[in-house]
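Q: Hi! First time asking for a complex rather than a single chain. Here are the components, and I think there are two in total. Is that enough to go on?
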Amino acid sequence: MIGAFPMTVTSVRAPRHGLGVSAAPRKRLSHRKALTIFIGPFLLLYLLFYVIPIGYAIYQSFLTVERVGTFGPATTVFGGFTQYIAVFQASDFWASVLRVLAFGAVQVPVMLGLALLFALLLDSPLLKGKKFFRLAFFAPYAVPGVIAAIMWGFLYSPSLSPFSAVTQNIPFLGADLVLWSIANIVTWVYVGYNMLIIYSALLAIPTEIYEAARIDGASNWAIAWQIKIPLVTPALILTAVFSIIGTLQLLAEPQTLRSFSTAINSTFTPNLAVYTTASVPNYSLAAAFSVVLALSTFVLSFVFLKVTQRRAFA
Amino acid sequence: MQRNLRTVAMAAAVVSALALAGCASATPDTASGGCEPSDGPVDLTFTSWVPGMDQVVALWNEKNPDIQVEFQTGPNGNSGTYQNFFNQIKAGNAPDVGQVEYDALPSFRVQDGLENIAGCGDILAAGDQFVDWTWSQVTFGEDNAVYAIPQDSGPTAMYYRADLFEAAGIPVPTTWAEYADAAAKIKALGSYITNFPKTDVNWFAGMVWQNNGQWFENNGEDWTVDLTSPESLEVADYWQGLLDRGEVSTLASFSDEWNASFNTGQQWTWISAVWGASTIKSGAPDTSGKWAVAQMPQWNAGDDAAGNWGGSSSAVLKGSKHPYEAAQFALWLNTDPDALEMANELGGLYPASKDGANLPVFTAGQEFYGGQKIYDVFAEASAQVIPNFVWGPTMTQTYTDVSDGFGAALGGSGTLADALATGTEKTIAALKAQSIPVAE
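A: Yes, that's all I need. Here is the structure of the assembled complex.
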């Protein structure tokens, strides 16, 4: 995106400064100016809210506390990889990583499968009331995650739920099911969002392809399976990467459900573990957790892209 | 062009990193620099989660036009306010006065979050006005040190549904053995004797406190951590028994579900602190007039030991620009008769001030409790609270880890006793991570 941008500017300006030798230095100057105006605000916010916090977290993760006696003044000193060693020894943290990976392995395919199904239905000529369904599927995404979790918390709750006949017999908030109860909330919220991305990709497919397919005698089913799905694979991969990142960063739903369920411990998800560690307060260890989590997320997303890239973008 | 941009970004990152490093390596401010009154009007901020505190603050503001206090509310300490305080202390913008429970004072002191207000006017002399054990909590037993003003205490007793016990013909238990007998009978009637609060590890500590146990010891140089003393394990095994037999519920405490179970008569008792009186009142309005309060069950018949659950202080947090005024406000808040009466009426606080406990509001019968003078029971309990219970320096962490273990036990893996053993291990690890000396 950034690479393409200066070219557009140049081509617009070219006719104005078409002649004269002196145009060259002025051209460079205004070019820079335009760049500053367009990139500046982004760069500033990017620095303030992205680069600096990350830099600070990395810096913080290399610190450790020293003190004299019980209540002696604490000083933070450079501790090298002390905190990272602690991270790799923290079995609770790694258990939480495994928990969200299991969560993702089940929830992401289910959610994206549903999103794809809904997108195909919206795109199919058979469905009536498309506008209504598009909005209806998307509406849960407009509900903030915390509100959604509170709402579902009440729905799952054994005695307060309107479906207490069911919830009294199935412990949705118990130790065995609570992870999947959370998966249901996350799916409910994000199916519509992912559906919209896939649906946009479907709309971008040229209709000539369908016409050609029909002339060749393809059914709606064959069009969906052999034309639409292969052509929206890049969108599916995009939503999958978003979902993998979102899964590893799961926080709001389990955190909110803690006031409904005794089965969610303080290290239920990696982000919850970071939150708990920061509230000890042990900022340096929390920062090291965050850095490791960010790197793991990056690696996982990158590996997923690498594995799928050849097929999708060939 | 892309390379240029990257250079700019890199340069900016380096500059910001350097700037941050500069901030962080500044030496901590060790000189407290006396405690003198400020000239001119002063604005203070005060954070507390006690309901109705805003109205007490309004009363102060009315009386003190030159020292205006802005009130901020938040969740219960361990549910978020402490974390906010720690973050704010680190960022240097903590409220001037904050509510801190006694069990959290060591954590705040270890994080250098408390101002020593002993030198702020006549604060040191105010010690006589407070119940002895609360004053020793805020001074850490040191001379010339006052780290907070005691606000309330939480002596524990047993709230029980007098009507249900009578109707069922079950005697009101006075010992833990009788309590277990009653639990079985109540289970047979389809209700629970009480709820086991997995997340309220400070409640569990109160039970250990009643049994004359300790979790921490500090000899001035290093800490000893042992959550698995015989007294502590006796309590754990007792509740494990009730849990195994399904005689106590395991709802998330203070949740809507929990309130509902009190309101619908599912819960017959609650071993709780004096401030719990208003919790039941607001959470279970349909049960008005049906509750009564008795001394909590005893381990040995004929004893009169009580535990303590909660109780807070008003601490002047590090970084306050007006520690003198903040200390005066904190003292007024916790000794002024009008303030104490309002804090009780609206927030259910039972004052740590000796005179406060004799206010008319604490000698009257309570309609919600069938006209019983419940504060007489708590005054008696308060006198029986063992004075020297010691809290650890990373209590939030200890609570979290024990609570996780309790949660696992409720989910069927491990026992409460296992949770205490794990809690000990993890607390020792957490102390070491903070370079706090631990005796092995």
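A: The longest strand of chain B covers residues 42-48. Let me know if you'd like any chain examined more closely.
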